[in-house]
Amino acid sequence: MSALNTALNLLKAFTPEKPSWGVRELSQWSGISSSTVQRVLATYCHQGLMRQNAVTRHYEIGIGFWHYGMLFRQHLRLDTLIAETVKNLAEKSGETAYCSMPDGEAAICVQLTESRQDIVIAIRLGERTPLHLGSRGKAILAWLPDERRRAIIAERVTDPARRLDLEEQFSQLRQCGWIVSRGERLPNITGISVPLLKATGEIFASLTIGGPSYRMSEQKVADCLPLLQHAKAQLELTLSHLE
């Protein structure tokens, strides 16, 4: 199991910001010996999951992951509908709309349509943010099993008063079904999010409309809420039919 964990932890080093690694620098970054890093990367290459750049000799994600990505997209039959829904939310609200899914202790953006206005919020597909910061993460964290949610909060938040405040926010969120954050993760950014739940009550994803705080007034947020609630109802109905 430790060998598998090592291989998976090395894989997590490959990100949009850092898509290419040399053996030595990856060893220094991870604290894992160069020989082990070399062996793991060679195995990934043999399986088609990575490739070695012929010029730089650095390792990059290979075409093999496209196969698994396509399997995931086929399994996630809501993908097209979510994309259309997010686009519709952006068009009707005039702001950026996005869908995020839980990924460990983070929320990962899986669908995104940017606002057509000159100033937009900085978010991109694949971006991961902590579950306890911002509306999109909180809309997911609130519906995780109690033990899992408390463990994440305990690890991420050291202030007992802050932990209590988060639990109160989650209690309110589970009652009203939506949450707003203002300047919580990034200054001068406001987002409003709703959870997407499976028929079992488990969290599936979150839907968010976000924009610069000077545009996201109380009235604008209030106008966005019914858009999100309607989208939530449609997607959850479709999701229940696919389970």
TrEMBL record:
SMART domains with a match to the protein in the record: HTH_ICLR (SM00346)
Alphabetical list of InterPro entries matching this protein: GAF-like_dom_sf, HTH_MetabolicPath_Reg, Tscrpt_reg_IclR_C, Tscrpt_reg_IclR_N, WH-like_DNA-bd_sf, WH_DNA-bd_sf
Stored PANTHER family: HELIX-TURN-HELIX TRANSCRIPTIONAL REGULATOR, ICLR FAMILY, HTH-TYPE TRANSCRIPTIONAL REPRESSOR ALLR
Annotated organism of origin: Erwinia typographi
Record-annotated HTH iclR-type domain positions: 1-63
Gene Ontology BP, a term: negative regulation of DNA-templated transcription
A molecular-function term among this protein's GO annotations: DNA-binding transcription factor activity
Keywords recorded for this protein, A-Z: DNA-binding, Transcription, Transcription regulation
Domain (IclR-ED): residue spans on this chain: 64-241
Name of protein: HTH-type transcriptional repressor AllR
